[in-house]
Amino acid sequence: MKLNQQIRKWHRNIAPIVMLPLLITATTGVFYRLSKDWFGLSRDQVHFLMSIHEGEYFGDILKPIYVLLNGLGLFWMLATGGFMVFQSLKNQFFKPLKTGD
Question: Residue 53: which domain range?
Fold first, then answer.
């Protein structure tokens, strides 16, 4: 199997696993910041969002593991997605010349 096909397969298989934690992290981070800056809420009023954002509900032992896996998942999706975009652009702009015409 070609490298490009293998990366697409892994990207497709891992995406559903990392989607929910990344969505939760991004959403709570944005709402936390906007709540403080735009709506004038105090840090105490929106601390629950930061607790969710940082995975505090997993406890002291699992919290760093959650953050690590969340970060690795994000880097993986960025790297494989970037690779696929690069391959697509490369194929679009540098199409192989047909021989035998």
Answer: 3-90
pTM: 0.77
Classify residue 101: in a domain, yes or no.
no
Token pair 């709506």 is found at 39
Contacts of 24 (CB under 8 A, 6+ apart): 52, 53
Residue 61's alpha-carbon distances to 22, 54, 58, 73, in angstroms, are: 20, 13, 8, 19
CA 44 to chain centre: 28
Residue 14 lies in a domain: yes
| 70 domain-assigned | yes
If one counts the domains in the chain, the total is: 1
pLDDT in tens, 40-91: 999 999 999 999 999 999 999 999 999 999 999 999 999 999 999 998 888 8
Assess contact for 36 and 43: CB atoms under 8 A: yes
Amino acid making up residue 66: Y
Q: Determine the residue type at 85.
A: V
Decide if 37 is inside a domain.
yes
